[in-house]
C-alpha cells in the first residue's frame, strides 16, 4: 500500500500530526526491504504509532511500516512477524498455554515497537522471554541474540541503531495452565481498560519512570519508600507534586487521575503536547533538580530530538 500525503494523525493513537510525504506498507519482508532500499532519504519506520508524538507539520519524507503479522509456534517457541499486534501475540501465547507474556495484555502497538522500546507492564518486560530477533541491518538479514539487543529499562540498542529494522521475533516461553493465564490476562485487561479507555487518544505514559539510584539525593529523600518498586519511582509522583494533574493546553489535558498521562480530549495539537511536556519537565527540574526523560518518541520536529 502506498499513500501520498498520508495524514499521520490516522496512524497514531494520539490522533495528532500532519502528513507524511509518502506512506508505504509492505507485508512481506522481501518486499519491505526492497521498498526501504529504494526509499528516498529521509525515511522512518513506524509500527502501530502508539508511542509517538508527530509534529503538526508532519514528516517530510517516507514513512514505512512492515505489516507482516504471522504467528506460529513449535513447542514452547513462538515465532512472530513484527507487524503483529502485541495483543494478538499475548492472546496466542495464553491460548496455547504458554506463560511469560500474559501481563503485557493490552499494551497497545505492534511487536516491533514493543521490542524496540522493551515494552512491559505488571512485572513483565519483552526482553525476559525474547530469545532472538531477526533484523535487516541495512546490508543483510541476520539474527540478534537477546544479549545483542542490549535491553535495559524501556530501551534497547535499536534506539542507537535506527537503521536496524525489526522483522521477526522469537520467544521462548514456559508451559502454563491456559485457563489460569487467560484469567490473569483478563484481570489485567480490565484494569488497563479502566486506566486507558480504548478510545482514549494518547501515547501511554509521557515520561519514563525514574531510577531511584540516579536521582539527586535531595529528591531521593522526598520519595516515600513505598513508592520505590524494582528500583524505580513513578514519574507521576514528581508530576503530581508540581500540580500536573488536570493541566490543560488547548485540547490536550493531563488526566485528573494520572499525572503522567496526557491525552487529546478533542481538537488538540502536537504543539500543545510539547508545550505541556516542556512546562511539566521544567517544573520538576526546578522543584527536584533533575530532568524527566520522555518515554514517547518525537517525529517531524526540528527543535527537539526527533526523527
Ligand atoms: C494507552 C497506552 C498504554 C500504554 N501502556 C504501556 C505500558 O504499559 N508499557 C509500555 O512499555 N508501553 C506502553 N505504552 C506505549 C506503547 O504502547 C509501547 O511503547 C509500544 O510498544 C509501541 O509500539 P508501536 O508499534 O505502537 O510503536 P511506534 O509507536 O509505532 O514506534 C515506536 C518506536 O519503535 C520503532 N519501530 C517501530 N517498528 C519498527 C521496526 N519494524 N523496526 C525498527 N524500529 C521500529 C519506531 O521507529 C519508533 O521509534 C502505552 C501506550 C498507550 C497509548
How would you describe this structure to a colleague?
The protein has 307 residues and is an alpha+beta fold. It has 3 domains: 2-66, Uridine Diphospho-n-acetylenolpyruvylglucosamine Reductase, domain 2 (2-Layer Sandwich); 71-176, Uridine Diphospho-n-acetylenolpyruvylglucosamine Reductase, domain 3 (2-Layer Sandwich), CATH 3.30.465.10; 197-299, UDP-N-acetylenolpyruvoylglucosamine reductase, C-terminal domain (Uridine Diphospho-n-acetylenolpyruvylglucosamine Reductase, domain 1, Alpha-Beta Complex), CATH 3.90.78. It is built from 7 helices and 21 strands. The strands form 7 sheets. The protein has a 5-stranded antiparallel sheet. A 4-stranded mixed sheet has the order 1-2-5-3. A 4-stranded antiparallel sheet has the order 15-20-19-18. The longest helix has 19 residues, at 270-288. The chain is globular, with a radius of gyration of 19 Å. The mean pLDDT is 95. Flavin-adenine dinucleotide is lined by residues 13, 44-52, 66, 82, 107-110, 112-114, 116-117, 119-121, 158, 165-166, 196, 202-204, 297. Flavin-adenine dinucleotide binds next to strand 3, helix 3, strand 9, strand 13 and strand 15.
In CATH's first tier, which class of the largest domain applies?
A: Alpha Beta
The chain-level structural class is alpha+beta
Which second-level CATH architecture of the largest domain applies? 2-Layer Sandwich
How are helices and strands ordered from N to C?
Answer: EEHEEEEEHEHEEEEEEHEEHEHEEEHE
Mean pLDDT: 95
Amino acid at each position: 500500500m502506498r499513500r501520498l500525503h498520508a495524514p499521520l494523525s490516522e496512524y497514531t493513537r494520539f490522533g495528532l500530526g500532519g502528513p507524511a510525504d509518502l506512506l508505504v506498507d509492505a507485508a512481506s519482508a522481501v518486499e519491505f526491504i526492497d521498498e526501504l532500499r529504494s526509499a528516498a532519504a529521509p525515511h522512518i519506520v513506524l509500527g502501530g504509532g502508539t508511542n509517538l508524538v508527530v509534529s503538526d507539520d508532519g514528516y517530510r519524507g517516507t514513512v514505512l511500516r512492515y505489516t507482516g503479522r504471522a504467528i506460529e509456534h513449535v513447542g514452547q517457541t513462538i515465532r512472530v512477524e513484527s507487524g503483529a499486534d502485541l495483543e494478538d501475540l499475548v492472546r496466542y501465547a495464553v491460548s496455547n498455554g504458554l506463560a511469560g507474556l500474559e501481563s503485557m495484555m493490552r499494551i497497545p502497538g505492534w511487536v516491533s515497537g514493543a521490542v524496540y522500546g522493551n515494552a512491559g507492564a505488571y512485572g513483565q518486560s519483552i526482553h525476559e522471554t525474547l530469545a532472538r530477533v531477526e533484523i535487516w541491518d541495512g546490508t543483510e538479514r541476520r539474527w540478534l541474540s537477546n544479549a545483542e539487543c542490549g535491553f535495559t529499562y524501556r530501551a534497547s540498542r535499536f534506539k542507537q541503531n535506527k537503521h536496524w529494522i525489526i522483522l521477526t521475533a522469537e520467544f521462548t516461553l514456559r508451559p502454563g495452565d491456559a485457563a489460569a493465564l487467560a484469567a490473569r490476562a483478563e484481570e489485567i485487561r480490565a484494569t488497563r481498560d479502566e486506566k486507558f479507555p480504548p478510545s482514549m487518544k494518547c501515547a501511554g505514559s509521557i515520561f519514563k519512570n525514574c531510577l531511584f539510584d540516579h536521582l539527586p539525593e535531595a529528591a531521593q529523600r522526598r520519595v516515600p519508600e513505598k513508592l520505590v518498586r524494582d528500583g524505580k519511582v513513578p514519574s507521576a509522583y514528581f508530576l503530581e507534586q508540581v500540580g500536573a494533574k488536570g493541566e490543560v493546553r488547548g485540547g490536550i489535558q493531563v488526566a485528573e487521575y494520572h499525572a503522567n498521562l496526557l491525552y487529546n480530549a478533542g481538537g488538540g495539537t502536537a504543539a500543545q503536547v510539547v508545550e505541556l511536556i516542556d512546562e511539566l519537565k521544567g517544573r520538576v527540574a526546578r522543584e527536584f533538580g533533575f530532568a524527566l526523560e520522555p518515554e514517547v518518541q518525537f517525529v517531524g520536529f526540528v527543535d527537539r530530538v526527533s526523527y
